[in-house]
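Subject: Re: docking follow-up (adenosine-5'-triphosphate)

Dear J.,

Thanks for your patience while I sorted out the input files. As discussed at Tuesday's group meeting, I've set up the holo structure prediction with adenosine-5'-triphosphate included as the bound ligand rather than trying to dock it afterwards. The sequence and the ligand SMILES I used are pasted below, so you can double-check that they match what you have on your end before we go further.
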Amino acid sequence: MVQMAIELRNVRKERRNKTIGPLTLNLPQGYITALVGQNGSGKSTLLHMLLQLTNPEEGEIHWFENKHESGLPLELRQAIAYVPEISLTEENHWTTMDAARFRSHWYPLWDNAYLEELLTKFEVPRNLTLGRMSKGERRKFEIAAALAACPSLLLLDEPSSGLDPFAWKMMIEMLTRYMDKSNATIIMSTHNVEEVRRLADYIVLMHQGQVLGMAEKDSLFGLWSEVWIHANDEEELADLAAELPGSVHFAMETPGVASFITQQFQQIEERIHSLGVKVIKSRSLELDEILSLWTQGHRPILIDQMRGV
Ligand SMILES: Nc1ncnc2c1ncn2[C@@H]1O[C@H](COP(=O)(O)OP(=O)(O)OP(=O)(O)O)[C@@H](O)[C@H]1O
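The structure tokens for the complex came back this morning:
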């Protein structure tokens, strides 16, 4: 049975201008979960609650099956690494090596050789203070230092922000390799669909402070299709739409050709043929298109099968 790294039960956090939650989520141990959603949807707030940088007004959070209402115990804090959205200014006057030395005292599993390897790959300047680094250089240091702590739980808030494409690819490789050699759990917020595609095992979609759902990433591929058909006019298309509940975005493309979007096309293709409608072609939607439909309220059918996770 899959163990949970994090469980949230009806967690509610009041922010000045909105309520985050109630959130109920189970995030499995040993996997990468991507938190996706528009600006202000509550991704960073959720990460902050997992670090107890801020606490919910209501609800319960469990870390590896334990509640810690009076503060995270030392050994758990030492097993969590965090790359914040904005780096801490308190460390600005430190060089890479000063910051590494400080962290090595804090994290019992700190691996200095691993840090050296990652800094070299990332080409992070060693003797510059963190405050003088470019945004991307600082980000690379933060990611390398988070991995060198060998955490069981790695929380990443938009890790690729500021990375050039070469560094981004390297980060993907580093995170993948780390997951291969450990039983760590990564929870990352991201706006980068390619990052989700390459890294995530699970996707949590947030929207306006709510969780719209959680899905196994692979289950989403091939789920939605755009289909082009022969249709004489709007009226004929409306008749077809009425026969295909759950299909959306019916539109006349050119005279005689219409399109629509549907889930599990293979299962309804026969039905379309039996209605005397000729299919011209179809294509599977990309992940970003699926996430956008989901945000609009078109929930993936398979998501209800994920309830047990
Ligand atoms: N310290 C705070 N005090 C008051 N409101 C806050 C605070 N931090 C965040 N908020 C508000 O809470 C909401 C959620 O913010 P949050 O930073 O969690 O969103 P996000 O999904 O991470 O956004 P983004 O993608 O832009 O980083 C926003 O409306 C934001 O204005």
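A couple of observations from a first look. The mean pLDDT is 93. The pocket of adenosine-5'-triphosphate is lined by residues 15-18, 37, 39-45, 85, 189 (CB under 6 Å).

Let me know if you'd like me to rerun anything.

Best regards,
T.
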